[in-house]
Write a sequence for this structure.
């Protein structure tokens, strides 16, 4: 596939001939992809095509599976994240992640958001208060929780829990946010709120989102990559992917002929 290059856009992640195997089974093949700053990049494709594997590679979470082997490069900024001297903790601070199922800690709303800052050594109460308020505001949930910050996060609705998890991710001030089907467990109203939030967040962050929902990809992303059987079949501006795809497989998928 020809590498998709944009001259006037700043790249934040650059994936170069990336291959990944689970044991003997290859899950990703020769991925070449540039991810741009302050954009929403959607990853679409049928079940099992490698979407989650791909985004979990971007912050090296995929290495938690012991049988994983990889080849190729992923550059964050100018550095190869697989270089032996690259600090994976730093990477995960810069490249945060939000999961499919909201996964708040069984702690207070406040402690959920303050967690990352505390781990990074912030102790002063007034500073923690500031971080918690700012993150909850950015995640568009402050008004709903500001009077019950000491309540347990498990008492929030699923949609609120997901926005809380987004706040928790924002609190460590990442540059990139990876989202693996963040709305698939949510009702339509909560989904709408998270979609609006993603669009607001791209002013300050770069977002990569895996979604099974093609309308969602079309609504909220700037660029879309269509994955199939571990390959990137097509990667381009979202409008082009949905209205003028260059590959027959992409067209078949977006028109619902398979997948
Ligand atoms: N932990 C694992 N061990 C072994 N194989 C795995 C593991 N995780 C994923 N795979 C395999 O890698 C391939 C890609 O899976 P992946 O979960 O990345 O796909 P996906 O596109 O995200 O799927 P879905 O849309 O169903 O979530 C599949 O063949 C899957 O079986």
């Amino acid at each position: 596939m020809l590498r998709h290059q944009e001259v006037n856009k700043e790249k934040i992640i650059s994936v170069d001939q990336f291959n990944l195997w689970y044991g003997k089974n290859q899950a990703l093949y020769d991925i070449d992809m540039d991810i741009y700053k302050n954009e929403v990049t959607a990853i679409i494709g049928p079940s099992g095509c490698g979407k989650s594997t791909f985004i979990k590679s971007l912050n090296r979470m995929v290495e938690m599976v012991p049988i994983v082997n990889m080849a190729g490069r992923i550059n964050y900024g100018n550095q190869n994240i697989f270089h032996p001297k690259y600090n994976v903790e730093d990477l995960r601070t810069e490249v945060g992640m939000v999961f499919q199922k909201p996964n708040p800690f069984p702690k207070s709303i406040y402690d959920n958001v303050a967690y990352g800052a505390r781990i990074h050594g912030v102790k002063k109460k007034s500073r923690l208060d500031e971080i918690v308020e700012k993150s909850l505001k950015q995640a568009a949930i402050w008004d709903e929780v500001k009077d019950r910050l000491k309540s347990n996060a498990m008492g929030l609705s699923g949609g609120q829990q997901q926005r809380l998890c987004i706040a928790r991710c924002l609190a460590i001030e990442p540059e990139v946010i990876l989202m693996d089907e963040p709305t698939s467990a949510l009702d339509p109203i909560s989904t709408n709120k998270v979609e609006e939030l993603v669009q607001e967040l791209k002013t300050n962050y770069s977002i990569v989102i895996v979604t099974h929902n093609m309308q969602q990809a079309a609504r909220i992303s700037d660029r879309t990559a269509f994955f199939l059987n571990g390959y990137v079949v097509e990667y381009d501006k979202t409008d082009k992917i949905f209205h003028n795809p260059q590959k027959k497989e992409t067209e078949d998928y977006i028109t619902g002929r398979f997948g």
About this structure: The pocket of adenosine-5'-triphosphate is lined by residues 22, 27, 45, 47-53, 65 (CB under 6 Å). The chain is about 35% helix and 25% strand. Residues 125-138 form the longest helix (14 residues).
